[in-house]
From TrEMBL:
Residues noted as binding a divalent metal cation in the record, renumbered to the chain: H50, H134, H138
InterPro entries, A to Z: DinB, DinB/YfiT-like
Protein name: DinB family protein
Cross-referenced Gene3D superfamilies: dinb family like domain
Keywords: Metal-binding
Transmembrane segments: none
Keyword Protein transport: no
Family: Belongs to the DinB family.
Coiled coil: none
Molecular function GO labels: metal ion binding
PANTHER family hit by this protein: DAMAGE-INDUCIBLE PROTEIN DINB, SLR1116 PROTEIN
Length: 186
């Protein structure tokens, strides 16, 4: 498997896991969504908002938006789970589309990341690896926070293995995806 194919799978996995979280939390009361919890970002709303904000920034960087840094100046945490889900779906789709267009040269291309005090230059594949790690890290925190609610934390870690298709087929079908489309298998 080449790196661009792997990153396309990662982008799909990212979206599916965000959707599993959104679906699991549908019955969560607004007060529970906003309630203080143990975590680096001390609520479900704040943690999911952080994931969304960082996704918006890095996807804007990957898409070459000149004003990507403004994400941090204009971002407001979504008030409700429905608002978060809509915004997260939209940025996830942008990330999937970006990764769908990647090839080896695209993975190796330099990308300029505007930081507060400098412009960092890295390769696209490194930025994506960092982004997927970041998302996984904070979704794990959301998963742990859900343990203190009536919501059962959903399974978030069986997307990457082609042999585990039976564990994701209903979720993929709901998103209109096919195994061959995502994994490149006949």
């Amino acid at each position: 498997m080449d790196l661009s194919h792997y990153l396309r799978i990662q982008a799909h996995a990212n979206h599916l896991m965000n959707q599993r979280l959104a679906r699991a939390m549908q019955g969560l009361a607004q007060a529970e969504f906003q309630a203080p919890r143990v975590g680096f970002f001390p609520s479900l709303a704040a943690t999911l908002g952080h994931i969304l904000e960082v996704d918006l920034f890095y996807v804007a960087v990957l898409e070459g938006e000149a004003n990507a840094r403004q994400v941090f100046e204009t971002f407001r945490n979504p008030e409700t789970l429905v608002d978060w889900d809509a915004a997260q779906r939209a940025v996830d789709q942008r990330l999937i589309a970006f990764c769908a267009g990647l090839d080896a040269a695209g993975c190796d291309a330099a990308v300029r990341i505007p930081r507060a005090d400098h412009v960092q230059v890295d390769r696209v594949a490194h930025l994506l690896a960092h982004l997927f790690m970041h998302q996984t890290h904070h979704r794990g925190q959301v998963h742990a926070m859900l343990s203190s609610t009536a919501v059962a934390p959903p399974q978030l870690d069986e997307f990457m293995m082609p042999s585990e298709a039976h564990l994701r087929e209903p979720d993929m079908a709901a998103l209109g995806w096919r195994e061959a489309q995502v994994y490149g298998q006949a």
